[in-house]
Amino acid sequence: MNSAYVYIMSNIARTTFYIGVTKNLNRRVWQHKQGKGSRFTAKYNCIILLYAEEHGTISDAIEREKRLKNWKRAWKLDLIKTLNPAFVDLYPTLRG
After folding, report:
1. Structural fold of domain 4-91
2. pLDDT number for residue 1
3. Where are the domains of the chain?
4. Would the pTM count as exceeding 0.85?
5. Would you tell me which of 9, 28, 67, 74 could form a disulfide with 22, CB atoms 3.0–4.6 Å apart?
6. What Cα–Cα distance (Å) separates residue 10 from each residue in 1, 41, 57, 74?
7. What is the percent of the chain where pLDDT is above 70?
């Protein structure tokens, strides 16, 4: 399968969100945790994986990412709560 992921990272206080796309979620989150994922996540210390969803293609994931980036904060919070109501770091649950 040629799947891709849309994911939401946050800082420890859960005040800043970063929405990204990747084909390898485990590796990409690890990069963010090392401060090497992106300038934004390094600057705002977004090291907590709060949400991820799998898509069949990278183009589908990119389309979803663009939509999510235009959402209001409250909508993003509601989306995260559907998968992760306690807002815990999901990274330890990733496989591979």
Report:
1. GIY-YIG endonuclease (3.40.1440)
2. 58
3. 4-91
4. yes
5. 28
6. 28, 8, 24, 15
7. 98
